[in-house]
TrEMBL record, chains A, B, C, D:
The keyword S-adenosyl-L-methionine does not apply. InterPro entries: Amidohydro-rel, Hydantoinase/dihydroPyrase, Metal-dep_hydrolase_composite, Metal_Hydrolase, Metallo-dep_Hydrolases_sf. It comes from Cypionkella sinensis. It comes from the Bacteria. It is an enzyme of class 3 (hydrolase). Gene3D superfamilies: Metal-dependent hydrolases, Urease, subunit C, domain 1. Its EC number is 3.5.2.2. Residues 47-419 form the Amidohydrolase-related domain. This is Dihydropyrimidinase. CDD domains: D-HYD (cd01314). Its cofactor is Zn(2+). One of its GO terms (molecular function) is dihydropyrimidinase activity. Keywords: Hydrolase, Metal-binding.
Amino acid sequence: MTTVIKNGTIVTADLTYKADVLIDQGKIIEIGANLKGDRTLDATGAYVMPGGIDPHTHLEMPFMGTYSADDFESGTRAALAGGTTMVVDFVLPGQGQGLMDAAQMWHNKSTRANCDYSYHMAITWWGQKVWEDMEASVKAGMTSFKHFMAYKGALMVNDDEMYQSFKRVGDLGGLAMVHAENGDVVAELTAKLLAEGNVGPEAHAYSRPPQVEGEATNRAIMIADMAGVPLYVVHTSCEDAHEAIRRARLAGKRVWGEPLIQHLTLDESEYQNPDWDHAARRVMSPPFRNKLHQDSLWAGLQSGSLSVVATDHCAFTTEQKRYGVGNFSKIPNGTGGLEDRMPMLWTYGVATGRLTPNEFVAVTSTNIAKILNCYPQKGAVLVGADADLVVWDPEKSKTIGAANQQSAIDYNVFEGKTVKGLPRYTLSRGVVSVDDGEIKTREGHGKFIAREARPAVNRALSAWKDLTAPRPVARSGVPVTGV
Amino acid sequence: MTTVIKNGTIVTADLTYKADVLIDQGKIIEIGANLKGDRTLDATGAYVMPGGIDPHTHLEMPFMGTYSADDFESGTRAALAGGTTMVVDFVLPGQGQGLMDAAQMWHNKSTRANCDYSYHMAITWWGQKVWEDMEASVKAGMTSFKHFMAYKGALMVNDDEMYQSFKRVGDLGGLAMVHAENGDVVAELTAKLLAEGNVGPEAHAYSRPPQVEGEATNRAIMIADMAGVPLYVVHTSCEDAHEAIRRARLAGKRVWGEPLIQHLTLDESEYQNPDWDHAARRVMSPPFRNKLHQDSLWAGLQSGSLSVVATDHCAFTTEQKRYGVGNFSKIPNGTGGLEDRMPMLWTYGVATGRLTPNEFVAVTSTNIAKILNCYPQKGAVLVGADADLVVWDPEKSKTIGAANQQSAIDYNVFEGKTVKGLPRYTLSRGVVSVDDGEIKTREGHGKFIAREARPAVNRALSAWKDLTAPRPVARSGVPVTGV
Amino acid sequence: MTTVIKNGTIVTADLTYKADVLIDQGKIIEIGANLKGDRTLDATGAYVMPGGIDPHTHLEMPFMGTYSADDFESGTRAALAGGTTMVVDFVLPGQGQGLMDAAQMWHNKSTRANCDYSYHMAITWWGQKVWEDMEASVKAGMTSFKHFMAYKGALMVNDDEMYQSFKRVGDLGGLAMVHAENGDVVAELTAKLLAEGNVGPEAHAYSRPPQVEGEATNRAIMIADMAGVPLYVVHTSCEDAHEAIRRARLAGKRVWGEPLIQHLTLDESEYQNPDWDHAARRVMSPPFRNKLHQDSLWAGLQSGSLSVVATDHCAFTTEQKRYGVGNFSKIPNGTGGLEDRMPMLWTYGVATGRLTPNEFVAVTSTNIAKILNCYPQKGAVLVGADADLVVWDPEKSKTIGAANQQSAIDYNVFEGKTVKGLPRYTLSRGVVSVDDGEIKTREGHGKFIAREARPAVNRALSAWKDLTAPRPVARSGVPVTGV
Amino acid sequence: MTTVIKNGTIVTADLTYKADVLIDQGKIIEIGANLKGDRTLDATGAYVMPGGIDPHTHLEMPFMGTYSADDFESGTRAALAGGTTMVVDFVLPGQGQGLMDAAQMWHNKSTRANCDYSYHMAITWWGQKVWEDMEASVKAGMTSFKHFMAYKGALMVNDDEMYQSFKRVGDLGGLAMVHAENGDVVAELTAKLLAEGNVGPEAHAYSRPPQVEGEATNRAIMIADMAGVPLYVVHTSCEDAHEAIRRARLAGKRVWGEPLIQHLTLDESEYQNPDWDHAARRVMSPPFRNKLHQDSLWAGLQSGSLSVVATDHCAFTTEQKRYGVGNFSKIPNGTGGLEDRMPMLWTYGVATGRLTPNEFVAVTSTNIAKILNCYPQKGAVLVGADADLVVWDPEKSKTIGAANQQSAIDYNVFEGKTVKGLPRYTLSRGVVSVDDGEIKTREGHGKFIAREARPAVNRALSAWKDLTAPRPVARSGVPVTGV
Ligand SMILES: [Zn+2]
Ligand SMILES: [Zn+2]
Ligand SMILES: [Zn+2]
Ligand SMILES: [Zn+2]
Ligand SMILES: [Zn+2]
Ligand SMILES: [Zn+2]
Ligand SMILES: [Zn+2]
Ligand SMILES: [Zn+2]
């Protein structure tokens, strides 16, 4: 059975044109005028865009004996509801656990996914076994490796481990990734704040100021440069980190930054809310920042110094959040956003004129598909590409609220925001998962997307590093000559 | 008659894949496997890329009663020989001349062109007539307007004129362009140098240091920001100007910079050559800079803060250059480069690992096609696009020299450089103009490419400027209230 | 008759120590323990500091047939009341008027001054006469030359005039100064705002955004660099200008910036006040900025990238301000501040920990004395220095208000601010002009302070410029050698 | 017995004037005209300046069972020969050794010193004992605490230790100092280079590129900011580190950088010398850099973003250097410079016009005296100050060479450089230690200079940190309120 999207305007990262799109067996098989199919989706007045890709989610993430509340089913349902057709989750091996063992656990969880997904592999500890498994991970299509510079005593890796791991990633043609906060300093500040009686959720923000993120970002960039590997910095939330990324890029380094939709549109005043629940629900790392940092992130998207808008979707219920009453450091870190990312970015970015529609597609989908080397299977409206598409109605409007969301949690950090610009249809490999606004996801339809290593950027970087590698000085005579 | 390019690897600004390309009547009509055509071009081992676009040429440019030596015939022949399939020249109205009159003169000259071309309109004087003609220019497809901040007493416009013109360009949905050097200061420094006996070609460089370019670039950016118009800075040659552009972009401004292949690969030491002719042949504005500035330009291409590589091709013979013996300020400004831009950039950029092949396509073709709003007719390998293509053989090598070049002049500023990476075939709207290395251009084949105004970037910028426009304060009571 | 200041702590730009100060005939004649004099001023619990120097005032400034309201009498009385013991005013020659003629007019006005003063000479037009008079100005002790880049059609000079004037100043060993705003663009924006009905005082701020100040600052710096002269930028109000200054300094250039106390402590929200008078009274150029710019200015003082805190005291009455009802461009530009500069800076700078007491002295007095080359006659607590001193009581407090100020105008832009830290005594060359809080100024006591040209910074800069001057290339044979 | 310096021009950090200086019992007792004393030193044609202070030496430093070759006798003799009258050495406690025990070992060594000296205390390990001893160190006048971010497995401290130590230093009112290189990455790069057969001294430089210094500098700054303590970065050698310092200062942070005379005047090409000894003798950390970095350091001194010129004098003989034949990582790190610092800086800084004579005094003496809080006892020409003076003859010239130096080693890294500007007399607390060019040092004359904690900068910083400290949000009702 074929499906045709008719009468729409195709908007990609670099093109805007009127054409119909014909889909068969999950693939785009034709783009052109006057196409016909077994089923017709009307895109009159709407944009036909590549479905969003959220490269940063934590679905059903293990946490203190329980799990983050959105699993691969509800999470991908929320994603599709908002126009996102692929998520990339993080495989988090336990201490001492092999990478491929952990990957299997994730594969077990994702069987219920409604849309496609891929995995980043996290380097949560370091040893010979990890070093070896990294090759297996790459071969299995998990070519990007996340490193935590924070969460001391748990996930954090030290600089020498990070160098060694980055070196390994570089040799394997993969992508190094970091959660960039100085874990030592966060731990010290946390202890100090608690000792001083600063125990509320606002102190979470005090314990991880922009400086500690900027520092860690800068450090990761240096280590990646020394190791000769491209670097992707997740959840870039502040000018300090953005500055480090800009400076690196302006030195020709291959570094990308990923602001979250939360940091683009919400600010630190949320933590000053007298309602503990309100504040605690916004606890995530990095925390929300002030307007100055927001402006910096928007400018980064406009100028290209920041590349991707993600969510770090990691949803905890109010009840879970309340683990941290009396001690902010026990509040589970994370907020939702999967359903809201694209409407929020359209409303605050495209409608205001900060971004063009093409740039919107680039930062929500195409750029990350290229960075993760799954373009043009994903992130494209091209013949042969997967039919992961969203028919975007720029006139459709709603007010965001927990009451009518897909996510399993009982609140929404964007509660009350009115967005204009919403999916009319969302297609996951041809399956109409949002049908004129109605959710019709198909549980288990989603497949794992394996990715190839060694894209062009890696090859170019390696060539340059070889060309500029240290050369020994030719010395004549005995090793030591006279004065 | 159809032509098929077989067995090649298509490389565009964002894709690399194996496919054949079928061409008919100057257009790409199919891209896929196992295509057949009346004529077959073998691309085995080669890349099939969008032909280059050089957005900055001065062919048969009037100069002191004569003309720059390369006209639209030899210039576009040189272009095609090097893989460039479109040039954008500058219509330069005389003082008091109407814009459309001048455009007609350019149309008369370009009838002999071997490849397609478009025009930027220069604002060389200011008045009601110019203001009016700007709309006609836009309607006639010349939507980009160049302003000279240098050449005092001739082409230079003042800040108030520039603001008014930029404002007009913005209102018309066009693109503002600048040659950014502080003409007042250049004139003062020139007079001082001559008075001090600094009359040789090296003093040309002394008279236009990076500072005067940086300053003017910064100023143009501010004026464009105030006028609400996107800005394109031609021949960005130095860190000072690049810094201003970066700073603007990082504030979310819509500004692009254009380094020339000369500034990327040649440096100021050329002016220290004891041979007057050698030095004088390298006289152009801005002059060549030192290695520090070169590094900055390369980093700009890598990071995206600079967008386009051009040539400012304006070829003068040694005899013409000698007008300036004894007075550097009379040396005609300009160098060639049309034939060498792409091989030089490939050799120094792609082969070293500074740029990926995709980035090469972006900065030689696709980016400027988007900026000038003629994408995807130009700059793309897509069905429906013009068959302006180059089949690039990365193993083909030569040593650049005046003896075997297409340009009409008697020297080459890249003389003696060995390049690796050259066109096997170049196609201008399907016409095989370089055929396995042999030049087979067709005089008069080239057509004028009209461009539409008001691309997405303009619309976004206007929306943002409206949103943030000054608002009067509502004051109660009489205009003036009490203390 | 001798005066001794006893039991205080001397605070200078680089020292803090307990000692008495003995004064005779207007000079400090001894500093040490247990000094005795005919009159004793008790400084117990107080700091004995160099009196403030305000390098930027406009007393009795001609304006539309009338004058700014504070003349040299009331202005210097206000100064002394606030701990400032010297002002530097601007001689403003009329169009075509000789510099020395104008200076004489200023000397006539200043006979009533209560404290010492010096003059900057303004270059308000350009011609041979001006060029010649500049030498006379330097010989007469007016070694600093102000240039207006704004006020088009009146005071504004163009880039070529500015270059020529700067060059002349450099040759004479003087100091170039600029009011840095792009006058062309201000004029265009003003016309546009008025045409759109934006006629209120808030539109004054809209007409001179930070961008136009940043641009002009950057331009002045480039021109000073080309001319080889040190540069002093008056009333640096924003990050844009500060950034340009920082960038210049970081390239080793000799450039200083002068934030005003108004810009450090008041912000643009003042213009949003619904009371027209309130807003109009704050109209000055540059206008007040937002908090981000304020933070930048404070950081500049802390880091040394900004050097001096001034006032640009130019007081107009409410009645005078009302010339601009219905047309903001007619509101006289200027605010007061002479009396409030030091208490405000102490309160917002020293009491908060942003500045040390020594840094307070540096930025209110010593730095400018060095820059203007009247140190250590002024700006010092040294034997032989003028006894221009303030005995500063850090515990003394008041609320600023028009009701109890010295200035002749009917309002105060700091109205309602409570300051802590005020003069107990202010001495002008030994004359106790504030006596335990009581004003006892002596009209006509103030003298003109002539300044020497060619301080060490000028000599160093000239040496460097000579060392790095363009050198002709030695060419062999006939001027033009072979290809 | 009194000594008078007659007919000279006194040059301090902020004054230049003709006066005689009278000295008694090691102190300046009078400054004025026509002074008389028992002994007269003629300063005709010379400058009378504060003797230099070198805040960074390692005399008789323990190293692999032996010691650096210059001890407190030869080291301070070299210092005085070059116009330096005070050195600050580093107490380096062994692992587990108490700080005060180590200090005693240093006091034992310094009994032979020819000039005054002070100590920085190094934090070479971390524990309760160290934490406690820090207070004793401060009380004993050692208020500055050095931390090594490099030398992994030996002196290096981790981020959490550094935070805790910085916090302690801040609480004690002291100064935090860092040797800023990322020790983890240096260790990794070293291992890699050795494994690849890069064993020569040039690989020392490859193992510690500017990036690792810039990163560590940036990190130290962040940690100091979080801990609320002023920071002094020793041996700032490159733009990367300077950039971090600038950025910090521009955010109002209290951070100083210390370039070495070696990095200002020598570059990385030294390591390319085919003579192993030549290269090995230049091995120090950080290594010499390229011209770009040199320019950055000079600009830092000019603009004030860098504050002090030091030497890191740590002299090893050629024989000692040869420990590292076949393995660069075993070459003892360190070069000389004590005797040459001031003549080299005068020649390359003042004579070229990069620095004024006053700035020369500031960066060689006065700034560090202020930073270390021993001003004006040291670093000043003031009545009551120690008579640590140099009579500087700007016409005196020599060629630097090992043959005629004071240092105990057999070579000089500045060998062959001609300097103009040398001491005619150097006085250490009144003792004429260089007498018309002849060395007449007095062994054991030097005394330990204890320094007070909590100077104005610390007090200001603490006030600001208190003012901006995190505040808990007042929440009403039960800890957790409703949704
Ligand atoms: Zn994270
Ligand atoms: Zn995450
Ligand atoms: Zn040009
Ligand atoms: Zn041109
Ligand atoms: Zn002004
Ligand atoms: Zn003024
Ligand atoms: Zn060190
Ligand atoms: Zn050291």
